[in-house]
Amino acid sequence: MEDIINGRCGWCGTDELYVKYHDEEWGKLVTDDKILFEFLILEGAQAGLNWITVLRKRKGYHKAFYNFDVEKVAQMTDADVERMLKFDGIIKNRLKIKSAIHNAKLFIAIQKEFDSFYNYTLSFFPDRHPIINYFKSLSEIPASSPESEAMSKNMKKRGFKFFGPTICYAFLQSTGFINDHLVDCSCRK
């Protein structure tokens, strides 16, 4: 895989959906808890799969998970799980669907404790500031970081599922808490 393709981080290649995601979302700081919840669900769904697989089903996830309304997702039942297992718009994995509902309840508890999931996430960062890395090649980008390991460990202790250090690192990248755009990427500015 090339490090830079058409002025962008090479991991997004030339797929239109991937390029749009890279250019418009990846690495840009998200402060809105609704969007943070969306990425929590999507990153959990991605476990063991390619991110492009999840991006292609993103609209389906919006439909299946009430536009990522955390209160509504937290109230979903086993009947909702069965309904979603028949819906082609998402990845049909019972454990991932159930964990999304379970994690919604824990997400709400964190919001109450920290006033927002955004504040909770920042609590794992030095001086509560996002990190901007200065990598020159894709091979330099790690699979996890001290921040993702600490956050994942804390979330596991709270009962979260499908949110290990690697998934947590991807979550932090996608929501801009860690900016890993390569130094020669046009989206770095």
Kindly list the characteristics that best describe this protein.
single chain; 189 residues; mainly alpha; two-stranded antiparallel ribbon; two-stranded parallel sheet; 10 helices; globular
Strand content: under 5%
Give the overall shape.
Answer: globular
Q: Note the main sheet.
A: 2 strands, antiparallel
Radius of gyration from the CA trace? 16 Å
The end-to-end distance, rounded to whole angstroms, is 23 Å
Strand tally is 4
Poorly predicted ranges (pLDDT <50, ≥5 residues)?
A: none
Alpha plus pi helix count: 10
One letter per element, helices H and strands E, the order comes to EEHHHHHHHHEHHE
Structural class: mainly alpha
| Largest sheet, spatial ordering of strands | 1-2
Helix content: 40-55%
Mean pLDDT: 96
Describe this structure in words.
By secondary structure, this protein is mainly alpha-helical. It has helices at residues 16-24, 33-46, 51-56, 58-64, 70-74, 78-85, 94-114, 117-122, 146-158, 165-174, and strands at 4-5, 8-9, 131-132, 178-179. Strand 1 and strand 2 form a beta hairpin. Helix 2 (33-46) runs antiparallel to helix 7. The longest helix is centred in the middle third of the chain and has 21 residues, at 94-114. The radius of gyration is 16 Å and the shape is globular. The two termini are 23 Å apart.
Per-chain topology:
Layout lengths: L3 E2 L2 E2 L6 H9 L8 H14 L4 H6 L1 H7 L5 H5 L3 H8 L8 H21 L2 H6 L8 E2 L13 H13 L6 H10 L3 E2 L10
Parallel strand pairs: 3-4
Antiparallel strand pairs: 1-2
Helix pairs in contact: 2-7, 2-10, 9-10
